[in-house]
Amino acid sequence: MQRFSNSVMKNMNRHVLRDGPRVLTADRPCDVFINHRGIDTKKTFSGLLFQYLSHLDIKCFLDRKSMKPGDHLFDNINRAIHGCKVGVAVLSPRYCLSTYCLHELALMLETKKKVIPIFYDVVPSQLHIMCRGSSMAYSSRDLERYSWALEEVRNIVGLIFDPSRHDWSELLSNASSAVIKSLMDVEEEGWPRGISNVISEKPN
């Protein structure tokens, strides 16, 4: 895992927060979209990362935590991805069984977002499309799209975490540092990113 020193972390925090605490309003696009399989990581790593970054006044999108009753799930997710600066893909053992996870990953890559993969209890070579009965059958277009997205993310340098061997606090620190560094890079490149003509369909 890539590690950042305390001094580098402090400098990154100061850079991202140089204008003081931000007011987190519903109208402001999120800074970070956290793509994850809820059953695997929502109550563990993904939830902790959301809370940690939120305390730094970095606006994150984490489905249920970022929406209220009555909000349209798909529309809000798509809007958040199009508006975000950085995507975090938490790739876990049951990730590839979720159509929504695969759609979100594909959309982040199609809109040219900077994506940070976190391989949580999996290695890149284990990521492939898994169909579970007829309800999980994909159209040829979706199959091609999701397979492409997984191939792309397998080739991005990320963090690898084995919950039985590695330290949780170290993962949270490394992931947060990587997110802050990526936000700095995106801002220096001249955000917004991902302006595209991609037309996304609702996942089956």
How would you describe this structure to a colleague?
It is a single chain. The protein has 204 residues and is an alpha/beta fold. The chain has one domain (6-189): Rossmann fold, CATH 3.40.50. The protein has eight helices and five strands; from the N terminus they run H-E-H-H-E-H-H-E-H-E-H-E-H. A five-stranded parallel beta sheet has the order 2-1-3-4-5, sandwiched between helices. Strand 4, helix 7 and strand 5 form a beta-alpha-beta unit. Helix 1 (6-16) packs across helix 8 and helix 3 (45-55) packs across helix 8. The protein is globular and about 40 Å long. The model is unreliable at 1-26 and 194-202 (pLDDT under 50). Residues 28-157 form the TIR domain. InterPro entries: TIR_dom, Toll_tir_struct_dom_sf. This is TIR domain-containing protein.
Structure at a glance:
Helices cover 44% and strands 11% of the residues.
Low-confidence regions = 1-26, 194-202
Gross morphology: globular
| Distance linking N and C termini | 35 Å
Q: What is the quaternary state of this protein? A: single chain
Q: SSE string, helix = H, strand = E?
A: HEHHEHHEHEHEH
The total number of structural domains is 1
> Average pLDDT value?
80
Briefly, what CATH class?
A: Alpha Beta
Annotated CATH architecture: 3-Layer(aba) Sandwich
User: CATH topology, what is it called?
Assistant: Rossmann fold
Radius of gyration: 16 Å
Strand content: 5-15%
Look at the structure and name the CATH superfamily: Toll/interleukin-1 receptor homology (TIR) domain
Helix-residue proportion: 40-55%
